[in-house]
Amino acid sequence: MAGNAHPIVGPSGWLNKNVLLLSLSAFFADGGYQAVTAVFPLLIIFGMKEPPYVYGLLLALAFGGGSLFAFLGGMAGDRYNRKTVALAGNLLIPLMSIAGFFSNVWIVGILFTLGWWARFFRTPARRAMLVEVSKPEHRAKVFGFLHALDVGGGLVAVIYAIILILYHVSYHDILLVSIFPILISSVCLAFVHYVPFAAATPSTGTVPASRFSFPNILRASTGGSSVSCFWPRRSSDSVTTRWASLFFRWQRHRPAPHWVS
Mapping DSSP to helix (H, G, I), strand (E, B) and coil, where does residue 89 land? Predict the structure, then answer.
């Protein structure tokens, strides 16, 4: 029945405002830097008359170093606000477009590389955001939608790059044109109403690991007032009782050993 169908758009559907904005951010980002990626070998080899191995070296540096920056971006996304990390990286992607202002191959190569590193850096945080603004039962559709727009943006970038080349637009100018969709991508990302996971997710009853820190254990053993972070304080609680309760809570929430199947 049509009345019983689950809605697609809206707060109760899988395509909510945040999912749409994150996916559009991916679309416009690829719509910009993929044009740079398509034109870059032509610029290096035919425009700047450099040997092909120079392009190979620059691409290896951009992608090889990018793997490290992706890892660092993931670590930063877990430590700091993910929207801030994703937006900071996204705002630096236009460095590869700004390369169009320069004619020195090494300056162009460095800017291209830095832009790609920024792209790798912001990606883990943005994907984590997509998880946190969607419901578990919608995750497959949500990621499918984002990647569809992601690839679609790259297709649009290659198409307009080819058209501009056919109209004899210089390679440098095509790089400069690509900055506009990347900036639109950052605007979409900025309008995402992102609430950090800890604040948005209701408690599951799991005791955070930080509560088993040395100061808290010391307070529990000595009857300090901070013991209330584990349970309500009662005058009848003895030190032994507190230690026993702490031990059993730790046993219940600790990960299973690797040898337990």
Answer: helix
Query: What string of DSSP letters covers 4-35?
Result: GSPPSBSTTSSB-HHHHHHHHHHHHHHHHHHH
User: From the DSSP assignment, how many helices (H) and strands (E) are in the chain?
Assistant: 11, 0
Which residue matches tokens 């606000």?
81
Dihedral of alpha carbons 210, 212, 214, 219, sign? positive
Q: How far is the C-alpha of 217 from the C-alpha of 209, rounded, in Å?
A: 12
List all residues 6 or more positions away from 51 whose beta carbon is below 8 Å from its beta carbon: 45
**pLDDT (tens digit, 0 to 9) for every residue of the chain, 261 residues total?**
444 455 566 555 788 899 999 999 999 999 999 999 999 999 999 999 999 999 999 999 999 999 999 999 999 999 999 999 999 999 999 999 999 999 999 999 999 999 999 999 999 999 999 999 888 888 899 999 999 999 999 999 999 999 999 999 999 999 999 999 999 999 999 999 877 544 454 544 444 444 444 444 444 444 444 333 333 444 444 444 444 455 455 555 555 544 444
CA dist., res. 172 & res. 164, Å (int): 11
DSSP string, 114-180: HHHHHHHHHHHHHHHHHHHTS-GGGHHHHHHHHHHHHHHHHHHHHHHHHHHHHTT--HHHHHHHTHH
Give the whole-angstrom CA distance, residue 76 versus residue 191. 21
**In whole angstroms, what is the distance from residue 43 CA to residue 59 CA?**
13
CA 168 – CA 67 distance, rounded (Å): 35
Closest alpha carbon to 190 in 51, 21, 11: 21
Residues in the chain: 261
Give the pTM. 0.71
